[in-house]
Design a protein that fits this description.
This protein is α/β, with parallel strands linked by helices. It folds into 2 domains: 277 residues, 4-Layer Sandwich (Nitrilase/N-carbamoyl-D-aminoacid amidohydrolase); 206 residues, 3-Layer(aba) Sandwich (Rossmann fold). It is 35% helix and 19% strand. It contains 17 helices and 20 strands. Strands 13-12-9-8-7-6-15 form a 7-stranded mixed β-sheet, covered by helices on one side. Strands 5-4-3-2-1-14 form a 6-stranded mixed β-sheet, with helices on one face. Helix 6 crosses helix 7. The mean pLDDT is 91.
Length: 562
């Protein structure tokens, strides 16, 4: 019997000492429950992704020093730790260190380096050239790292051919909606096809635009999940694995076998049945991702409070609820900035929301400031028609007020724009885009409503029902509605999904029975708004293709889809 503990931890990039302390704590917890092996996520020593910190030689050296400092913690237990390794020629490897009884028993180097989407591993790492399996308590372990197990003909298959009965994969797999099911299908596929156990440890936590959702799991040879960790929370996942026959190692090309000294535990231990944490419902899943991403961005960057412009609309209401869940209502400040175009209803809803949440609300009217701007510019604007210039002035006044409060009190400004608006440029540069973190930047408008309804269902209608029922409006001119400029959001979000996330051409999108003129209009809006998005605050990725690292189009670009 082999008792495996999966240490699903929340690391911080660059906090080498802090990550070491956390790993030591989880090793002790694993030893207390009699685990033979404890498995940590990919690049656990450095945090993930370390990006260009890897170009600092001293950073890599410090990461290896932390690994050595961890070794004394491994008495009578095997620890598999994600780290950065370096060879004599100075080449870097994304590695898994196998440590037992204070000694490094072996090191596996990741062979499959992803270089798509948010991944840039070929920029930093060299692909491993050797495969390895480890013999622990007569159990053969094949150890791999993240992308390795997503490659059907990759190192995991070689390990199975060499006799591995347990595949251990350490991972830092970024979240997007429904990715957990995709991962589970891959892991269960390996287990069922090759009749092996699969133990998968995933990182949890927020890092800039990325969120890691955890959900580490152990799968048996029937393809059944026998233990699974929580989503969006640290966890220690424990289960016992029984392989009735002694494992045999076969000698095959490119696979090295390494024996690990037997652990001190006896097989007479009472067997632990793994616990499977519940899967979250779709809206709850996205909500928890946004809460975790917001909390970690503020706390890991040293912010104690957040400030939000509360318009009385659905987007700012959702961001306020998320902020309260992330850092506590006492650390959230709302600012209402009404103008002559602000309705009684939206102004009232901002107050009701603040009261329901129990947050501080400031009211800073902007009509007088707008009048001053227009007076100062009266000669320059003489003879010109009123247009979006005057609308954008209001947004920029509000942005200035929020940034002034941020500067004065050290609060982080949370912007409130959603993916639908940012995609088509329905936002004001240096106005409502001003801020430090864009919580719902990757959340389409239709999803905003879904999450808000989930919140109201579970949090006693904290968002006023009138906010959900009112037609969306920026309230920058009389009787303005979003639909004056944009298609209905359900139609817009469909077009954006096809164009942005699925990379489909205008021709293919139109064949889906969508209005050709509307499709062409939306695509033009997306293409010409790249300069705005490039200057936007970072925000949490929750879709397969988010604006940011996933989307790298040139601003100066003469290629037109339509």
């Amino acid at each position: 019997m082999l008792r495996i503990a999966l240490a699903q931890i929340n690391t911080t990039v660059g906090d080498l000492e802090g990550n070491l302390v956390k790993m030591a704590q989880f090793i002790r917890r694993s030893r207390e429950v009699g685990a033979d092996v404890v498995v940590f996520p990919e690049l656990a020593t450095t945090g993930y992704p370390p990006e260009d910190l890897l170009f600092k030689k001293h950073f890599v050296e410090d990461n290896l020093r932390m690994l050595k400092k961890l070794m004394p913690e491994t008495a009578n237990i095997t620890a598999i730790v994600g780290c950065v390794d370096v060879n004599a020629q100075g080449k870097l490897f994304n590695a898994a260190a196998v440590i037992h009884n204070h000694r490094l028993q072996g090191m596996y180097h990741k062979k499959e380096l992803p270089n798509y989407g948010v991944f840039d591993e070929k920029r930093y790492f060299t692909a491993g050239s050797e495969n390895k399996i480890f013999l622990l308590n007569q159990n053969t372990l094949g150890i791999s790292i993240c992308e390795d197990i997503w490659t059907p003909a990759g190192p995991c298959r070689e390990q199975i051919t060499a006799g591995a009965k347990i595949l251990i994969n350490i991972s830092s797999s970024p979240y997007h909606f429904a990715k957990d099911k995709l991962r589970e299908d891959v892991l269960c596929g390996w287990a069922k096809e090759y009749k092996v156990y699969v133990a998968y440890t995933n990182l949890v936590g927020g890092q800039d635009e990325l969120v890691f959702d955890g959900r580490s799991m152990i799968v048996d040879p029937r393809g059944q999940v026998i233990a699974a960790g929580k989503q969006f929370a640290e966890d220690l996942v424990i289960a016992d694995i029984d392989i009735p026959k002694k494992s045999k190692i076969k000698k095959i090309k490119n696979v090295q076998s390494i024996a690990i000294p037997k652990a001190a535990h006896e097989d007479a231990r009472l067997k632990i049945a793994g616990q499977v944490a519940r899967c979250l419902d779709p809206a709850e899943e996205i909500y928890q991702a946004l809460v975790l991403g917001t909390r970690d961005y503020l706390q890991k960057n040293g912010f104690k409070k957040a400030v939000i412009g509360l318009s009385g609309g659905i987007d700012s209401s959702l961001v306020a609820v998320i902020a309260c869940a992330a850092i506590g209502r006492e650390n959230v400040v709302g600012v209402s900035m009404p103008s002559q175009f602000t309705s009684v209803g939206t102004r009232s809803d901002a107050r009701i929301l603040a009261k329901n949440l129990g947050i501080q609300l400031m009211e800073v009217p902007i009509a007088g400031i707008l009048s001053t701007y227009l007076f100062v510019l009266r000669n320059e604007f003489a003879g010109q028609q009123v247009d979006t210039t005057e609308e954008n002035l209001q947004a920029r006044i509000r942005g200035n007020i929020l940034m002034a409060l941020s500067n004065k009190f050290g609060w982080l400004v949370l912007t409130t724009g959603n993916k639908s608006e940012i995609a088509v440029g329905y936002c004001t540069l240096y106005g409502d885009m001003s801020g430090g973190f864009a919580v719902i930047k990757d959340v389409p408008k239709t999803k905003v409503y879904e999450i808000a309804r989930f919140i109201n269902k579970t949090q006693n209608h904290v968002i006023p029902d009138t906010v959900l029922k009112r037609a969306p409006t920026a309230e920058l001119r009389e009787n303005q509605k979003d639909q004056d400029t944009l298609p209905p959001y359900d139609v817009l979000d469909d077009i954006l999904k096809y164009y942005v996330e699925d990379r489909q051409s205008a021709e293919k999108i139109i064949k889906r029975q969508l209005n050709a003129q509307l499709v062409e209009k939306v695509i033009k809006m997306v293409d010409r708004s790249e300069y705005k998005r490039r200057q936007a605050a970072p925000g949490i990725k929750i879709t397969p293709r988010a604006f940011g690292k996933d989307w790298r189009l040139p601003i100066t670009n003469k290629y037109k889809e339509v």
